[in-house]
Structures are given as structure tokens and as C-alpha cells.
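agent> step 3/5: call structure_predict on target 'Transmembrane protein' (Zygosaccharomyces mellis).
agent> reason: downstream docking stage needs a structural representation; sequence fetched in step 2, passing through unchanged.
tool.input:
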Amino acid sequence: MRYNSKYFVINSPDALFNLNHTPQATKFLVIGYVAISGALLFSRFSKYNSLADPKLEFNSIVSPVVQLIPSKIWKFPFSLILSNFIDVQMWKFIINIINLIIGGSFIERTWNYDSKELLRFVLIVGSMTNLALVLITILLGLVTSRVQLDEPLDGNYTTLIGFPIIYKQLMPETTIFQLKNLNFLSKNFRFKLLPIFLMSYLTLFCLIRMRWIQLLLIWVNFLSCWVYLRFFQVFKTGEQITVGDASDTFQLLYFFPDLIKPILKPIFDKTYHFACTKLQLIRPFDYDDVDKSNFIAEQRGAKKITDTAVDRRKQLALQILQERMS
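tool.output (status=ok):
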């Protein structure tokens, strides 16, 4: 799809809007999302009308069966999963339903119609993130009374935040829109910029509204989605199986602006080595993993990071030299 005007050009891959055949997992997620969100809205309206209390606010009516309420999670543990299918804000519902239909279809087709993998990403990663958020919220509630444990958390950010990370992974250099005849603005906005643009907007929104738990929620969700795609996703290409994405361009560092990369790099490097060597939570990538993932990323259009490749060759040469000397 392409739209060209005097000041801007909108450009999206045709494959992104190929909706002739909706894959199975996408269809299941869309139907579940509409059905459970609709059922929640209907039950809230029914309860609101039955109480007929003029002082009662509609937003105060909650359903712990499907909504993520920390104080009631032990009684309704299935809300960790069901909360992935609901939204109570209309703007977020509309964005998520469009994102599921268009983005879910595109991702599932690109993942070789692996329905289990898309369901695993949305439901398992989303549910594990929700569990982490509930535990963190309960711990914060023990420390400060400002954290309300009986208020629902928004447990459905995996589609909104996770899909842009996948777009960056699958088509990083593809232009979303291009500005023309405006020399004071950046001319190209590519998919690789979408995650940090979205996170910056959501972070600013939470800071302005002073919604600290929601701020924590979106960043935990962002990191959870990236960690799964980076280290644990099993991707099949014919008979070849790849675990994770070890490509240089998919490093966490390259999600952030160049201005703060020198500050973040030592922090991310130490965290990576600590998780690999001390905690042994993840398997460290070897040079073959990185080269293989770089080849796949370059086929997707990612630009090669020469500085990282040079540093890796130096490290490999140093390692070989040390082995020979010993």
C-alpha cells in the first residue's frame, strides 16, 4: 500500500494487508478477544444498571474472573490468562483488534503458519508477564499504601507492545512513512523505530498522569517480549531450527537512541553476562549463532553493523591466540 502527497508518503508492505486468508491462531485470538471483552462490557453494564446508584461510577465495577486484580489473584488465577483477551478502554480495544487482524495474520504467515508459536507468544509470554506484575505489585503494596491491591491492572499489552518488536525484527528498514519538503524534520520513519516511539509515548503518558504501576507494566512487558524473541523463540526454516535471534541489530541496545547508547551499553553487557554465567537463565550466544542470525536479519533487510562485526572478529582472534599460547 502506498499513498503519495506533497508533504508525506505512506508506505506499507502489501503482505501486511493480505487478509484473504486469516490463519488459525490469529482467528482464535480475534474471536476470543472480541467475545471476552464483549462479555465483560455486558456484565459490567448489567451490574451498573441493576444497582441504580447515582453515586456509583461505572469504572468502579470490575470482574476479578477476567480482570487482573492483585488482591484476588489467588482466588481467580485464570485471570492471568483471560486478562490477555480484554480491554476496557475503547481506544486500546480498537488498536488491538486492528493490530491482531492485520499484524497477527502477517506474523503468523511469516512464521510459516506456526499457530502454536503465535499463541505461545501472546498467551504464555503475556501470562508470565502478568504474573510478574502481580507479584511486584503485591510487594510494593506491602511497602507503601499508595499501591492499591484491589484495583485491576491492565493485563493486555503483549499485542500492543510485542507486535511492534516483531515488526522491527521482520522488516527493520521498511519505511512506514516519509516526510517531504520539511527539511527540519526527520524524513524517514522505519519499522525499527516503532518500538521506541511507542514506548516513549506510553512512558510520557504515564509520567504525566502519574500512573506508576502502569509505567512499570509497559516496561516489564517490553522486556519480557524482547527476552522471549531474543533467547527462547524456536523458529523453523525447512529442516533448520533456530533458537532465539542473536543478530547484532536485535540487541536491546539498538532499540534506544544513539545519544544514550554509551550509557546503556555497559549496563546491558554486565546484565547479559550475569544472566548467562551467574544465574544461568539463558544460553550465551556463540559466534556461529550470531553469524547465522545476522544472515537471516540481512535477508530481512537489516543493515549490517560493521563496528560490532569488527569487535567480534578481534575477540575471536584474541581467543584463538590465547588457546594457542596455552
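agent> step 4/5: record observation. The chain has a mean pLDDT of 85.
agent> proceeding.
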